[in-house]
Design brief:
45% of the residues lie in helices and 15% in strands. It is built from eleven helices and five strands. The protein is of the alpha/beta class. It has a single domain, classed as 2-Layer Sandwich (Nucleotidyltransferase, domain 5). It has a five-stranded mixed beta sheet with strand order 3-2-1-4-5. A hairpin with a 2-residue loop joins strand 2 and strand 3.
């Protein structure tokens, strides 16, 4: 089986606000072994990088001025991934940006799902480690993957780390971490005080679509926040 582990970097979090790709990086794995083949390119997004993205990636606007546009590299990129299973952490984020770039390049390119099945390692990690942090850095720590070279987010190093994380998660030989993160432990240990209500409270529940949209937004924030995770996700865990 041929798999391609993929990561992207972007000018910001929201593709619907016109944010663009600034880096695509892929490493190839055949029959669960890294082949040594990889694909990596920086891209000129024709727009400024948000300050938050600049701080996370270390990529400056000036650096991208002489880089190719997506339409200049789309054919070689698709040739690298075509027919492979894509392994992506928080796949909806990366695939959303890739699909937007493909649409700009021309309707003949279709969508990522037309070309490749996609495996989302974030969804896999949430199922395997419920109630715990499942960012790439957190998974590296949990699974014993050395991420000491990851000072900044970069597509190629993140793809290489994700390949190791994926192999560790699916090998059946790693120890299961049954502990909770520190924030979750503190929340569990908190003193619970009874609340007496003199009337029935009105409960407004989010719809399934609202919950899904909320999770997608938090996943995108986690991707850009690095090891500590986004403030919103940390607040949600401790609540």
């Amino acid at each position: 089986m041929r798999q391609v582990i993929l990561d992207t970097e972007t000018t910001g979090l929201e593709v619907r606000q016109g944010h663009r790709l600034i880096e695509i990086a892929c490493v190839e794995m055949v029959e669960r072994r890294l082949s040594g083949r990889h694909y990596q390119t920086y891209l000129n997004p024709d727009r400024a990088i948000d300050e938050g993205a600049r701080q996370v990636t270390g990529i400056e606007d000036e650096f991208l001025l002489d880089k190719p546009h997506f339409e200049d590299v789309v054919d070689e990129f698709l040739a690298f991934i075509d027919g492979a299973e894509l392994v992506i952490h928080n796949a909806s984020f990366d695939v959303g940006f890739l699909d937007a770039e493909l649409a700009r390049a021309g309707s003949q390119y279709g969508r990522i799902a037309d070309r490749c099945p996609v495996l989302d390692t974030l969804a896999m990690a949430r199922e395997r480690y419920p109630g715990q942090r499942n960012s790439l850095d957190a998974l590296c720590r949990r699974l014993g993957v050395d991420n000491s070279a990851r000072d900044l987010h970069g597509g190629l190093i993140d793809a290489q780390l994700l390949a190791e994380v994926y192999l560790a998660m699916t090998s059946g030989q790693v120890a299961f971490d049954l502990g909770f993160d520190e924030a979750a432990e503190s929340a569990t240990a908190a003193v619970q005080h009874p609340v007496v209500l003199d009337r029935r409270p009105r409960i407004l529940r989010a719809t399934a679509e609202e919950v899904a949209a909320h999770e997608r937004k938090l996943d995108a924030l986690d991707k850009s926040a690095g090891e500590a995770g986004s403030l919103w996700r940390r607040g949600e865990t401790a609540a």
